[in-house]
Amino acid sequence: VSRRVVGRSKNASFVDRIWGLFASLKLAVIIFAVVALTSIIGTIIEQNAEPEKNLRVLSRLFGESAAPALYDLFERLWFMDMYHSWWFMTILLLFAINLVVCSVERLPKIMKLVKDPVKPLSEDHFKGFGIMREVVLKGRPEKTRDRVISAIKKNTGFNIAEAREENGFQLYTQRGSYTRLGVYITHFSILIILAGAIIGVIFGFKGFLPLQEGKTASTIETRKEKIIPLGFAVRCDDFDVDFYGNSDMPKDYKSWLTIIKDGKEVVRKIIRVNDPLTYEGVTFYQSSYGIVPSSGGDGIFRFKLTSKEGKTEEVNLKFGESFTIPGTEFTGKIEDFSPALAFDATTEKAYTYAEQMNNPAVLIDFSEKGKRKYSGWILKRYPNTWRLPNGHTVEFMDLWGIQYTGLQVRKDPGILLVYTGCITMAIGLFVAFFMSHRRIWVKLVEEKGNTRILIGATANKNRQSFERKIDRLAQSMSKTPGGGIG
Amino acid sequence: MDSSTFFGISTLAYIIAMMIYISYLAFRKPAIGLIATSVTITGFVSQTIAILMRWKEFYEIGRIGILRAAPFTNLYESLVFFVWCLILGYLVIEFKYKKRSFGAFVTPIAGIALAFINLTGMNKEIQPLVPALQSNWLLVHVIMSFIAYSCFAIAFCTALVYLILRTDNRKEPAYIFWTTALGILIVLLAAMGLDYITFRVAAQSHESLIKNYLFKATFFNSSAAVSIVSWLAALGFVLLSWRYGHLLKRLIARYSMDPETLDEITYKSIAMGFPIFTLGGLIFGAIWADQAWGVYWSWDPKETWSLITWFVYAFYLHARLLRGWRGKRIAVVAVVGFVAVVFTYLGVNLLLSGLHSYGSME
């Protein structure tokens, strides 16, 4: 319930009621529940999917006949893209307001706890402490005082304040009062992250760019099919995939990118998954790859030719072109190629088994002095196919120009804020859960020429470990030379 | 000996330990308790060796950095690691609180997880890492997530036992809650067991068993009669567990477990798990996604369910610390939280899809 004084005018009381509503934990719980429940719907209905997919899901859940009408209803309610819907955004906004109001509401009380210095307490107060110890030392408080102080310093390292009392002293100290703010740091960090996310949505963009080897692009198409100029150009110089052993499971794939600004090449970088390139706030992520349809004519075959005698030469050829092994009259002509060659187990006929460039191969027809000798498949991933029967080698280095690299392109001016929020949250959580506000009061009272020592302590978290510390403190007081009684 | 031998030893040890802990509950002989702890520690040590050996095997096959070859990359490996964290957490609590009876409730969770691995026959092969998973974030993200999951699992056990001990009246909501929850859990496990027995031949792969045959042997059977009987049997079983739940209470109540200690362990486990989950699960996950795909939050089912789980535990903490909720009410929240954890971890991978689809059974 709001602690603000209710104003006299009707207007003020209305504002107050709204404030009170947002300050309540109940609203927070309701918002939590609404976000959670609606989110569940969003995980069952696949977001931004083709209509058929969700129609299938709906007819499985509610029956064939009800599905189309339900789909229509859900579409109207934005359930097919619900996390970007106006009503989901509204809930998140309400959540943010709730968080701000709740924090503002409780902050003054907490600030008082944080800022107020510890004060000496009466003996009655000591009885009420959760952690209470009593020790009796030989000698009057004037004599034992220094020992007690050094014991506290040694065991806790806290700075000690001191008050002279009627028949003795009181020593008191605290540490970590600011840790009570950990919760607020955490709450604040959520707001920072939300702010960063909003900035990203408003001022940033996301898009996908399929870029063929050798091609250059200077615009991006976003998910909402909007064309956005980059202000510079990006070129894909090369693309390559590494596989695990002889399997078709990709181990690593990478693109050689060049950024061109005002006609000059300014940046070159090899990007791979988990290692993007950022230029002028735009980041290019390696996301997928594939073969550009009917691009066979663009392909350039790169071979390294080595003759029996060891003479080498590198050549770049197009489909249908020929090469000569250096220093000989032995020639080869590219007759056919396959991006993913396999041989049928029974007929031994060659066929293409995948639409990706998983196992590129060329069929080469060899001739000597114009006389046809033999032909055979040369596979990029299998060096044993590079060696010819007559001792020459034809190394299949690359087939360049028919693959595209799939780049996820993003500009997000809010990202720095989001990261700041994440770091803030980490700090806030650490402070809130693993640090505590600890206070110690030690009262030295004269009793029949000796000193009775009362130790009272509080910790707002992890009390047990603090209690053990206080036990050690009490022990070390009685152990010091001159020692305790009994 | 390879890693699978040691995994076998640890599985066996945990199942034996579970039985010894339960008989320790029944006979209360310190010697039995000591044997239970020793068997658990044996299982834990052999599991640790197994994980390290698999790490080495993985490293030798994948030829990627040693830190990136952590064997936590598919459902099988993650379940094994979850059990490891859970047992570690339990051993810590046993040594700290000097109480063994609680082992009878934690070791069954380890047992269920390991039985789940064998029952579904999920793929145990070492699979090479797809490029997206080759990141240094993998290790911290997964380790921290599973430490948090284990904390939540322990909180679930203590909260459940707390509820069992503290409810008397059959009409009491908390009693209805825990008896039906326990009943439904057993029914679901039994139904999945039946699916496995009936369709393990028909389902070509284990993923297809879950995806295409889930509850086809019972609730969704093509024969209406079988389906109706299954639903009735399930309902009957849940009713039975409601009717006779107090017997379980009587059994457990004999072994003087202090409800306040249970409540405290629940709170401490959640207070430990929540920040670790937030940081390792949500924040590190978001940073990794940002570096791999350029999207730090994409509302994919795994992320969304993690957020739902996070909300439930955030609610637990706020209700307890701000509203002073104690006892049965707060224990119910801890139990619900773990249901969300299980769904985030298994349900999403098995039933829904998304960026985390590598966590499937294939």
What this model shows, in words?
The complex is a heterodimer of chains A (486) and B (362). With 486 residues, chain A is of the alpha+beta class. Chain A has ten helices and 22 strands. Chain A has helices at 10-22, 25-44, 51-62, 67-76, 86-115, 123-127, 141-156, 182-203, 415-434, 463-479; strands spanning 131-137, 161-165, 168-175, 205-212, 216-222, 227-243, 250-261, 264-272, 277-279, 282-291, 300-306, 312-317, 322-324, 330-338, 341-343, 350-352, 361-368, 371-379, 393-400, 403-411, 438-447, 450-459. In chain A, the strands form five sheets. In chain A, strands 8-7-6-5-4-20-10-9 form an eight-stranded antiparallel beta sheet. A five-stranded antiparallel beta sheet of chain A has the order 1-22-21-3-2. In chain A, strands 13-14-17-18 form a four-stranded antiparallel beta sheet, with no helix packed on it. In chain A, a hairpin with a 2-residue loop joins strand 9 (277-279) and strand 10. Mean pLDDT of chain A is 88; it is low at 1-8. With 362 residues, chain B is an all-alpha fold. Helices cover 76% and strands 0% of the residues of chain B. Chain B starts with a helix and ends in an 11-residue tail after the last helix. Chain A binds chain B through residues 25, 28-29, 32, 35-36, 39-40, 42-44, 46-47, 83, 197, 206, 244, 247, 249-253, 272-276, 283, 285-287, 408-410, 412, 415, 418-419, 422, 425-426, 429-430, 432-434, and chain B through 62, 64, 128-132, 134-135, 271-272, 274-275, 278-279, 283, 286-287, 290-297, 299, 301, 304-305, 307-308, 311-312, 314-315, 318, 322-323, 348, 352-353.
